[in-house]
Write a structure and sequence with these properties.
By secondary structure, the chain is of the alpha/beta class. The chain has 12 helices and 16 strands. The mean pLDDT is 96. The structure holds 5-S-methyl-1-O-phosphono-5-thio-D-ribulose (MRU). 5-S-methyl-1-O-phosphono-5-thio-D-ribulose binds next to helix 3 and strand 9.
Length: 353
Amino acid sequence: METQNEQQKASIQSLEWRGDHLRILDQTFLPSRTVFSDLRDVGRVWDAIKKLRVRGAPAIGIAASYGFYMGLKDVADENFSSFWIEVQRIAEYLGSSRPTAVNLFWALDRIKNSIYAIKDKPIPEIKEHVLKIAKTIHDEDRRVCKQIGLNGQTLIGKKAKILTHCNTGSLATSEFGTALSMIYHAHIGGKNIHVWVDETRPLLQGARLTAWELTQAEIPMALITDSMAGFLMKQGKVDLIVVGTDRVAANGDMANKIGTYSLAVLAKAHNIPFYVAAPLSSMDMSISSGDEIPIEERDGKEIYEIGGSKIAPDRIPTYNPAFDVTPAELITAYITEKGIIKPDFATNLKALF
Ligand code: MRU
């Protein structure tokens, strides 16, 4: 039975529009401190995305939408052609913050297209329209995440051991999340679930954020290091794996947090279903395969330092891709707001659009 209290516990609000600025729950301080930051200009939004103060594909798209408005609101109201140059400049600037999550570009393109569609209107009116779209993108994500959770929980048995990677919850979206929304809704629906949370090196989104969210919601869980996942599968301790995604290609390949590909290979070897929760805003039908997904590379410091302490020799060379690509053939199904999509993904994803 759903109770309002359980719903509330699962729906942390990490992004809030406060009339003239964006308030975020700064994820870099979690779990030790709950710090809210007020972002009052587009530069602050860019920086927050870059530094993962706000992170997770849908949340990045929502934050960038409000950032777009804040960047445009003080642009001169002279004429559309000079305004349009600023629109393109701000979109390019926000788009340079992180390359992999397509939700960022999806949101920026959506705003750009809707500005162009009303180019004959007075500029102040266009600016207000941009804020309206940012709010719409935010509200839509709430409905989408809830629906993904409701659709996806049908794949979870009455008693299930679930493994998840990175953070795909309320912190990564408007609320509930994507893969974590499936878990929340299974729990709210009274299922007896236990969640294995991969710590998710190097930035520990699993340990810092998913473990924090699940603890708030009182969902039974245990934290493991990434390298333990295979052994758990071998021991029969994992019934299914659910992850999120940053970008799905037209053939069903998808990028997600580094370490996801290894989990998918292990899942295949142990005959365990591997589910990917994906809003349509994470799908990029303009690219034919995962080879075309730009993979963000981050500073090696994230590998050789933990919490400010060095854990490797000085000046050690590093390679730090933040995401990997899982090929379509390793994915059991996509869970979207429009339903559960099974292979053949090339055909079935195309039909969605
Ligand atoms: O680098 P991050 O923390 O932004 O990476 C996030 C992920 O990889 C998530 O799994 C993905 O964005 C889906 S969030 C619903």
